[in-house]
Write a structure and sequence with these properties.
Elements: H1 2-7, H2 19-28, H3 30-38, E1 47-51, H4 57-66, E2 71-76, H5 79-86, E3 93-97, E4 110-116, H6 125-134, E5 136-147, E6 154-155, H7 159-176, H8 190-196, E7 200-212, H9 217-232, H10 242-252, E8 267-278
Parallel strand pairs: 1-2, 1-4, 2-3, 4-5
Antiparallel strand pairs: 5-8, 6-8, 7-8
């Protein structure tokens, strides 16, 4: 357990559970994530590892891309996440509890390793890439996805309130995990991380996840529970002035006339970046 904590930047352990937030994001960004998978030009018979599969919503999409003869494995450290993933997996798909740095697979097994919003949890992301690279067949690929690589979420409300809220969120998480700003710089260097991990032909593509009113049920659930309540909410009170916290709370409260998701001008933007690199032939 102590070793796991040492390897994790964000306090992950087998008992940690943020299943709801993972499910909400995967449902909210389903179209964008599926387009990212489609852009990899997968084919029948490939073997894929989802490293940090979370609650497993992407396992079926990956499985469909390599059907009918392909195989998809998902691994995650959290027992709760895997319990959720097991309930929805299809044929020729399996999940296992494992530390990404100690995967239970022989070298050279997979054609693709897919890993979304996971590498940023590691204290040493380059080490993670080097471990995953050993699992690839010659010319296999690693695809690392990161939501909000551009860290500021855009809301169509007062730009000053948006700025101080984003700054408050970052300071809250630095305090929660006892980090400095420099501790988090590795997430900004996914291209460099893949190259330092030994991959070649590294490419990156950033897409915009954009929503305007009226929002779908999936969008409302994610924005309300994962952002307004889970990311903003009471935890930001010590980091904002009383007036700013009151204004933000009104925007995030479904029972307040100012609730953002009922505004005709509601407009939300965040990004999703996929960085792909290839293993060289030995």
């Amino acid at each position: 357990m102590d070793q796991m904590r040492a390897n994790s930047l964000l306090g992950d352990t087998p008992d940690r559970d943020y299943s709801m937030k993972l499910r909400l994001f995967n449902q909210y960004a389903s179209a964008e994530l599926r387009r990212a998978v489609q852009g990899l030009n997968l084919s029948a018979g490939m073997k894929i590892l989802d490293a940090g599969c979370g609650t497993g919503e992407l396992l079926s999409c990956l499985g469909e891309s390599v059907a009918p003869t392909g195989l998809v494995w998902g691994i995650d450290l959290s027992r709760a996440h895997l319990d959720s993933a097991r309930s929805g997996i299809g044929p020729r798909t399996a999940v296992a509890q494992a530390d990404l740095l100690r995967p239970p697979f022989s070298p050279g097994v997979f054609d693709l390793v897919w890993s979304v919003n996971t590498l940023n949890h590691l204290a040493n992301p380059v080490e993670g890439i080097r471990v995953l690279e050993t699992l690839l067949q010659p010319l296999g690929r690693i695809a690392v996805g990161q939501s909000s690589l551009l860290p500021d979420m855009y809301f169509a409300w007062d730009s000053r309130l948006e700025r101080v809220t984003n700054e408050a969120v970052r300071q809250y998480y630095r305090d929660k995990y006892n980090l400095t700003e420099r501790s988090l710089t590795s997430v900004r260097s996914l291209v460099g991380t893949l190259r330092a991990g030994g991959l070649r032909n590294v490419r990156a593509e950033t897409s915009v996840i954009e929503r305007v009113s009226p929002t779908s049920a999936e969008d409302k659930a994610y924005l309300l529970h994962a952002i307004f309540e889970g990311t903003f909410g009471e935890k930001l009170r010590p980091y904002l002035s009383q007036d700013d916290f009151g204004e933000l709370s009104a925007l995030c409260d479904p029972n307040n006339p100012a609730f953002a998701l009922r505004r005709a001008d509601f407009h939300f933007i965040q990004t999703f970046t996929l960085v792909v690199g290839e293993k060289g032939a030995r």
